[in-house]
Automatic annotation (TrEMBL):
Residues 468-558 form the Sporulation stage II protein D amidase enhancer LytB N-terminal domain. Keywords: Signal. It comes from the Bacteria. Residues 1-22 form the signal peptide. InterPro entries: Bact_Sporulation_Assoc, SpoIID/LytB, SpoIID/LytB_N. GO terms for cellular component: outer membrane-bounded periplasmic space. This is Sporulation stage II protein D amidase enhancer LytB N-terminal domain-containing protein.
Length: 818
C-alpha cells in the first residue's frame, strides 16, 4: 500500500511540475589579493576636500536594490543564481537583473510583494524598512536608526546603517566586505564590456542595478560580495594612482593602457615617455588624462619553482614577496589580465617586474609552455598528507645532493636523512641520481597489505622545508610519469592493449591537470593521489612502459581540444551519459547536457531491445537478464545485491541528508504544500515510510529518488547523493555495515552503494508498512566514460585500443597532444 501511495504522489508531481529558469553565471579568475576589511562603520559624513567624499544622501534605494543587498547579505551570488525560481510577478521576469534577488527575498519572506507585482523600481519606504528589520530581529532604535514609520522613501544613510547592522549580525566572514577599487572602464566607455560589468585595477566586477559611470577614473570604496558590487560607500580619491598598469604604447600624446581586461586611451604630455611600448608603470589619472607616470623596468626571469598570491620562488634568484596590488598579464595570443595560477611552475615563461623595494609588482606571461616535465607532489604513506615529518632517501646509483651553494655526491644505496642541516641557508634541496638511476624514499610506503612496498622514483626530487614540514616534489618527464600511473590506475595483468587505453586516458588527464596548475603554491602540477591520478602506488613494469611508449604523446581530443577522459571500474552492461550523473558546474542544473564523447551506450555487441531504459520494467528485465554477453560480465561487480532494513535506511538518510543539502542544496528538494519540490534546508525525514525511483536516465541509472518520511517527501538528485543516502553503511550503534553480495558469492562492505544501477524488491507487513528492501544492481562507480574492466572484456573479444577508445568516447580522435 505504501508503494502505491508513493507512486500516486509521483504521478501528481509529474502533472504539476514545470520548468526552472536560471541566468548564466559570471566567473572571473583575476588576481584579487588586497587585504579586504570587514564592514565596521557606516559611511563617513565628512565633506572636506581632503577627506573621502560620501555618496549623496538623496541616493534612492529602490525595492530592487534593497532586495539585491539583502539577498547578498545572506547568500553568495552563485547560490542566488542557481536557486529555483518560485516568484510569479508580472513586473519581474528572468531577463531582469533584479529577478533572482527578488526571488531569494520572497522565498525567505524577508520582503514580500503584492498578488501580482513586486514594484521593483519603486523606492523602499520607511515602513517597509521597519518591516524588513523586524524579520531579521533588528531593533533599529537600539542602533540609533530613528525615523518615522511612514510611506516616505527611506533615507540612504538610514538604510546603509541598517545594512551594516545586518551584515554584522550575519557574521559572514567570507561574504560581505569593503574594498577600494579604481573604476577603469564601464560599458559606457568600453564596448568590450557586457551590461553591468566594469574593469577595475583588481579585475572585472559586476554592479547590477547601480550607476557607476560617474565614478570613472576615481578610486571608490565599495561594499562587495565576491565579484559583485553591492553598494558604493564613498569616493576615496578623485585623482588616483593606477599601479602596475600595462602600458601598451605611448605614441605622441596618447597612451594606450591595459587594466582589468580592457584597453583605454589616455592623453599624456610627458615628452620623455614618447614611443614607449609594452612596459609596466604607475600612472596618475584625472578625467582621461595621465598627469603623472613612473615606469618600472627592473625585470627578472628564470624557472618558477612555486607561486602563490603572496610570494614567488624563482630558481637561482630566490624568494620574492608579491605586492598587494601585483598584477599578472599575458601576451600569449593577445593581451590578457590573468592570475598567479596561470603562471606554470617548473618552467621559465614569465617576466617578473621588481619594484624599488625588492617586491614583485607585476608579471608578464610571455611564452606558452610546452609540456615536457611534470612536477608531482608526493604524499605521505596512505596519501594522508602533503607534508612529511622526515625525509630519508637513497638511490639505485650514485646521487647528487644540492643545497644552497653546496653539493655532494653520495654512493648508490647509501641512505641520507634530509634534516635541518641541509636547510641552514635555504629552504630547498635537490636530489639527482646519476646514470638514469631511481631515488627511493624510505619514509613512504605504497600499496596495501602483502603488496606494500617502498617506492622508487625516476627523475629528480625537490625537497622544500616550511613551517608545516617537508614537501617532496618529483620532477620527471611526462612519459616516464605515466609509466607508474598506468599500473596504479588499471591492472597491467589485463595485458598490453588495455594498458595502452589507460595510457592515452592518463596522458590526456595529465595534460589538463598540468595546465590547470592547481598545485602551483606547492610547486607542483599534480599530486600523486586520486585528487589528480594515482602515481606509483603500483610500481612501473614492462607492460606499462611498453604501453606508454607505444602511444607516445597521444591523447584524446574532441573538436581539436584535449578532453579529460572519465573512467570507472565496472559497468552493468550500459554506460551512463555525463548529464545524467553530474549537475552543471555553473548553474547546478540537473539533468545536464552530455557531450557526444560522454554519452552512454550498450556495453555488448549486436542489436538489442535495451535502448532506452528509463522505463522501470525494462530496466528490471535488463538487470535480471543473464544471457547478455556484456564486456564486463566476467567481473564480480557486474551483478550484486544487498538487503537493508527500513531502520537501517532511515538511520543512514537522517544522518546524511543534512550534510548533502549543505553541499548541494539544489539537488535535495522537499515537496511543499502546493505539490512542488523546493530547495529547503533539511536535517532529516523523520520515520522512513517508503522510497521509490522518480526518474532514470536512458542507461537505466537512477537520476532522481523519492524518499517519503513522516516529516515530508524529499526528492534526491544525482547518483552520488543517492548512493550515499541509501547505502550499506550503518549509523545504528552496534550494527555492522551491510554486506554487498557479488555475483561470484563474495561479500564486500563499503560506505556507499556500488552504483546507482539497481532495482528494488520491497517487503511490507500486513498493514502496508515497509520492513526491508532487497537491492539488486550492477556495476561499480559512476558509470561515465570508460569501464576499465570492460576494456579487458573488449580486448578478449579482439578489439584494439584505438577501437576501444572510439567506443567509449564517441566522436573523439587520438592524436599527439604535445
Amino acid at each position: 500500500m505504501r508503494y502505491i501511495k508513493l507512486m500516486m504522489i509521483v504521478l501528481v508531481i509529474i502533472m504539476l511540475s514545470g520548468c526552472t529558469e536560471t541566468e548564466d553565471t559570471l566567473e572571473d579568475n583575476n588576481i584579487d589579493n588586497e587585504n579586504d576589511e570587514l564592514i565596521q562603520t557606516p559611511p563617513d559624513t565628512k565633506k572636506d576636500t581632503n577627506e573621502p567624499v560620501t555618496v549623496k544622501s538623496d541616493t534612492v534605494i529602490t525595492r530592487a536594490v534593497a532586495a539585491k543587498m539583502i539577498a547578498l547579505a545572506n547568500f553568495d551570488k552563485k547560490t542566488i543564481e542557481i536557486s529555483d525560481r518560485e516568484i510569479e510577478f508580472e513586473d519581474s521576469t528572468p531577463d531582469n537583473w533584479f529577478d533572482k534577488y527578488i526571488n531569494i527575498v520572497v522565498i525567505n519572506k524577508w520582503m514580500l510583494g503584492g498578488t501580482k507585482t513586486f514594484n521593483p523600481l519603486r523606492p523602499l519606504t520607511n515602513k517597509e524598512l521597519e518591516t524588513v528589520s523586524q524579520r531579521f530581529d533588528i531593533d533599529l532604535k537600539k542602533h540609533d536608526i530613528d525615523f518615522d514609520s511612514n510611506d516616505d522613501a527611506v533615507d540612504y544613510n538610514d538604510f546603509m546603517s541598517f545594512y551594516d547592522v545586518l551584515c554584522k549580525k550575519n557574521e559572514d566572514e567570507g561574504g560581505i566586505r569593503t574594498k577600494k577599487l579604481i573604476v577603469f572602464a564601464t560599458p559606457a566607455n568600453s564596448s568590450s564590456l557586457r551590461s553591468w560589468q566594469m574593469a577595475t585595477n583588481y579585475g572585472m566586477y559586476t554592479f547590477e542595478g547601480l550607476t557607476l559611470d560617474c565614478y570613472l577614473d576615481k578610486e571608490i570604496e565599495v561594499i562587495i560580495r565576491n565579484r559583485e558590487i553591492v553598494a558604493v560607500k564613498e569616493i576615496r580619491n578623485e585623482i588616483p594612482k593606477l599601479t602596475n598598469a600595462y602600458i601598451e604604447e605611448i605614441n605622441e600624446n596618447v597612451a594606450t593602457v591595459f587594466m582589468g581586461g580592457v584597453s583605454r586611451d589616455f592623453t599624456i604630455n610627458h615628452d620623455q615617455y614618447k614611443h614607449k611600448k609594452n612596459c609596466i608603470g604607475d600612472i596618475i589619472i584625472n578625467d582621461g588624462h595621465i598627469t603623472g607616470i613612473l615606469l618600472k623596468e627592473n625585470m627578472i626571469s628564470n624557472k618558477v619553482l612555486s607561486i602563490s598570491n603572496d610570494k614567488v620562488d624563482i630558481n637561482e634568484l630566490g624568494t620574492y614577496s608579491l605586492t598587494d596590488d601585483a598584477k599578472v598579464y599575458s601576451t600569449v595570443d593577445g593581451l590578457h589580465f590573468k592570475s598567479v595560477s596561470n603562471i606554470i611552475v617548473g618552467y621559465e615563461s614569465t617576466n617578473f617586474i621588481v619594484d624599488d623595494n625588492g617586491y614583485v609588482c607585476a608579471a608578464i606571461i610571455r611564452d606558452k609552455v610546452d609540456m615536457k616535465d611534470i612536477r608531482v607532489l608526493i604524499s605521505t604513506t596512505g596519501f594522508a598528507n602533503k607534508y612529511h615529518d622526515k625525509v630519508e632517501v637513497t638511490a639505485s646509483t650514485d646521487y647528487i645532493i644540492e643545497y644552497e651553494n653546496d653539493k655532494k655526491q653520495v654512493k648508490a644505496n647509501e641512505v641520507t636523512n634530509i634534516n635541518n642541516d641541509y636547510f641552514r641557508d635555504g629552504n630547498r634541496v635537490y636530489i639527482k641520481p646519476l646514470n638514469d638511476g631511481k631515488i627511493t624514499i624510505n619514509n613512504i610506503k605504497r600499496g596495501n597489505g602483502n603488496s606494500a612496498f617502498i617506492p622508487s622514483y625516476r627523475g629528480k626530487l625537490e625537497i622544500v622545508k616550511d613551517s608545516e614540514g617537508y614537501l617532496i616534489i618529483n620532477e620527471v618527464p611526462i612519459e616516464e610519469y605515466l609509466y607508474a600511473v598506468v599500473p596504479s590506475e588499471m591492472p597491467t595483468s589485463y595485458g598490453l592493449e588495455p594498458a595502452k587505453t589507460q595510457a592515452v586516458c592518463a596522458r590526456s588527464y595529465a595534460y589538463t591537470q598540468f595546465n590547470s596548475n592547481s598545485y602551483c603554491k606547492y610547486g607542483a602540477h599534480v599530486i600523486d593521489s586520486v585528487s589528480s591520478q594515482v602515481y606509483n602506488n603500483t610500481p612501473e613494469n614492462e607492460t606499462s612502459i611498453e604501453a606508454v611508449k607505444a602511444t607516445s604523446r597521444k591523447g584524446l581530443t574532441y573538436n581539436g581540444n584535449v578532453v579529460s577522459a572519465n573512467f570507472f571500474s565496472t559497468s552493468c552492461g550500459y554506460t551512463a551519459s555525463s548529464g545524467d550523473v553530474w549537475a552543471n558546474g555553473s548553474t547546478h542544473e540537473f539533468p545536464n547536457y552530455s557531450p557526444e564523447y560522454l554519452t552512454g551506450s550498450p556495453q555488448f555487441d549486436g542489436e538489442t531491445k535495451y535502448q532506452d531504459m528509463q522505463d522501470e520494467e525494462l530496466f528490471r528485465e535488463f538487470i535480471l537478464e543473464d544471457t547478455i554477453d556484456s564486456y564486463d560480465k566476467q567481473f564480480s561487480y557486474y551483478r550484486w545485491s544487498v538487503e537493508l532494513t527500513r531502520e537501517h535506511i532511515e538511520s543512514t538518510i537522517n544522518n546524511t541528508i543534512g550534510k548533502r543539502y549543505d553541499i548541494q542544496p539544489k539537488q535535495i528538494k522537499t515537496l511543499d504544500e502546493n505539490k512542488i519540490f523546493r530547495s529547503r534546508p533539511i536535517d532529516g525525514i523523520g520515520e522512513l515510510k517508503d522510497i521509490a525511483v522518480y526518474k532514470r536516465g536512458k542507461s537505466g541509472i537512477i537520476t532522481e529518488m523519492l524518499i517519503e518520511g513522516s516529516e515530508g517527501v524529499v526528492k534526491v538528485s544525482t547518483e552520488y547523493n543517492i548512493r550515499l543516502l541509501i547505502s550499506p553503511y550503518s549509523y545504528i550503534k552496534g550494527e555492522e555495515t551491510a554486506p554487498v553480495i557479488l555475483q561470484d558469492g563474495r561479500e564486500v562492505r563499503g560506505s556507499m552503494m556500488p552504483s546507482a544501477f539497481y532495482i528494488m524488491d520491497k517487503e511490507y507487513d500486513k498493514d502496508g508498512n515497509l520492513i526491508k528492501i532487497l537491492f539488486r544492481g550492477g556495476g561499480y562507480g559512476h558509470g561515465v566514460g570508460m569501464s576499465q574492466n570492460g576494456v579487458k572484456g573488449m580486448v578478449d573479444k579482439g578489439y584494439k585500443y584505438e577501437e576501444i577508445l572510439s567506443h567509449y568516447y564517441n566522436g573523439t580522435k587520438i592524436k599527439e597532444i604535445y
